[in-house]
Design a protein that fits this description.
Elements (H helix, E strand, L loop, with lengths): L4 H6 L15 E9 L5 H10 L6 E11 L4 H19 L7 E10 L6 H18 L6 E4 L4 E3 L3 H11 L5 E6 L10 H24 L12 E4 H6 L10 H9 L6 E10 L11 H11 L3 E2 L2 H12 L1 H6 L6 H4 L2 H7 L1 H13 L4 H11 L2 H9 L10 E2 H11 L9 H11 L4
Parallel strand pairs: 1-2, 1-4, 2-3, 6-8
Antiparallel strand pairs: 4-7, 5-8, 6-7, 9-10
Helix pairs in contact: 6-9, 6-10, 6-17, 6-18, 14-15, 17-18
């Protein structure tokens, strides 16, 4: 029995897509969802220009549309598929094998990038299963990205040098080429990118154990790790966040700090979350408000108290250790029940912490953060102010709070190379 047979028997997945088996030396498969996006040809050109990996590489493009997709976009998808098929036949791409699949009329309840990404990644697993390569690397990319010269080499090197790691996130920087994009779009996208880095860094500051960028175009996972967590979510947006946070506690998830991916900063309505909608919102509203940094300070106090909670007396100590903001949000009774359950099922502080983080995880943190609106004690605030508050917590003092100074400082704090 091959390594992924149980996965396909246990979890819902579509039928096999490609009849031609992969080369036995295949070690990397890049999966790209594509919805009405002619930028895919620039993305593929960029991939083909990158230095090839030692292992054989395939690129799977899933051109997709749903039952509610307009006839115009459905036709656009068919044109993209036909052109990709023509490029495949004529051997345009020299450094990888291109595989294309067109899916149409996907039911509205699942149609979207999550379904397309899962379709492609499941097929990548199926192909690695055929050649019994459980360590095969599945790379997630989007159709509006460029990649660096070292893209394949650096990803392959990471997994070779970190054999106990089942996945990694990949450092990015949006494509701010002023010859291609208007200054207004670039400025708006820089604000959004500051937020992305501020959010990850602030989660790290809080003591949350899995602070990471969860961007669909910026992660890679081994085939065996992919199936261990039940595969990709079919969510219509945020599928990358759910998948990576489900994966994090189960594998030694690392990070490639070298900038390998350059997503487009353009406005887009292809997905409900991400760069395109954020840039559109920033331009239309003329501002960008994000989570108040004080909320991460509350989370920090909560998370840092887990060791004390393990030893505390329920009747006297729990509420003295837990921040009031957490008690109000969760409720004292629910908190006590969760803490008691964790203590009863662990026998040391380390195990208790791990169990607590399984209950008060990334999804809890997001819900907590989202519970504070403009009328709350900790309302959202301008992204430059929030990011500067984080920087001050790290003893970084800026001469001037501006888009340029905050952007450069937050990039440095995020360890980008």
């Amino acid at each position: 029995m091959a390594f992924a047979d149980n996965y396909f028997g246990r979890f819902k997945s579509g039928p096999k897509i490609f009849n031609i088996d992969p080369c036995p030396k295949t070690g990397i498969i890049v999966v790209i969802p594509c919805y009405n996006d002619f930028h895919i040809f620039e993305t593929l050109k960029s991939l083909d220009s990158a230095t090839p990996s030692v292992a054989k590489t395939e690129v799977i493009v899933i051109v997709n549309s749903g039952e509610n997709t307009t006839p115009e976009i459905a036709q656009s998808n068919r044109e993209i598929h036909q052109k990709l098929f023509s490029n495949q036949l004529t051997g345009v791409y020299k450094n990888f094998d291109l595989l294309i699949h067109l899916i149409e009329n996907v039911p509205a309840k699942v149609a979207g990038v999550g379904h397309a990404r899962k379709t492609g990644m499941d097929e990548a697993v199926r192909r690695f299963n055929t050649i019994e390569n459980a360590d095969g690397i599945i790379v997630s990319l989007d159709a509006d990205c460029l990649v660096s010269q070292n893209y394949f080499v650096s990803i392959e090197k990471y997994f070779r040098n970190n054999q106990k790691s089942g996945a990694c996130t990949i450092q990015f920087r949006h494509d701010f080429d002023e010859n291609k994009y208007e200054k207004e779009i670039i400025s708006a996208c820089k604000l959004y990118e500051i937020y992305l880095r501020y959010f990850r860094l602030s989660l790290d500051f809080s003591g949350f154990p899995y602070p990471m960028h969860t961007i669909g175009s910026c992660f890679a996972v081994s085939a065996i790790s992919y199936i261990k967590v039940g595969g990709m979510s079919q969510r219509q947006g945020g599928e990358d966040f759910y998948f990576l946070h489900k994966l994090a506690p189960m594998t030694n998830e690392g990070k490639i700090n070298e900038t390998l991916v350059f997503p487009s900063p353009r406005i887009s309505d292809r997905v409900p979350f991400g760069t395109g909608p954020a840039v559109n919102k920033i331009i239309s509203e003329g501002k960008y408000k994000v989570y108040n940094f004080a909320l991460f300070e509350i989370l920090k106090k909560f998370y840092s108290g887990f060791d004390l909670l393990y030893h505390a007396n329920a009747d006297e100590g729990f509420d003295q250790i837990i921040p009031k903001g957490i008690i109000v949000y969760v409720g004292s009774e629910n908190l006590h029940a969760n803490i008691t359950e964790c203590r009863q099922n662990t026998n040391n502080p380390m195990a208790f912490r791990k169990r607590m983080f399984s209950k008060f995880d990334a999804f809890f943190a997001i819900r907590f953060l989202n519970s504070f609106d403009e009328q709350s004690k900790y309302p959202p605030e301008d992204v430059l102010i929030s990011a500067n508050k984080f920087l001050l917590s790290q003893d970084t003092i800026l001469d001037k709070i501006s888009l340029h100074t905050v952007y450069e400082a937050i990039m440095e704090a995020d360890g980008i190379e």
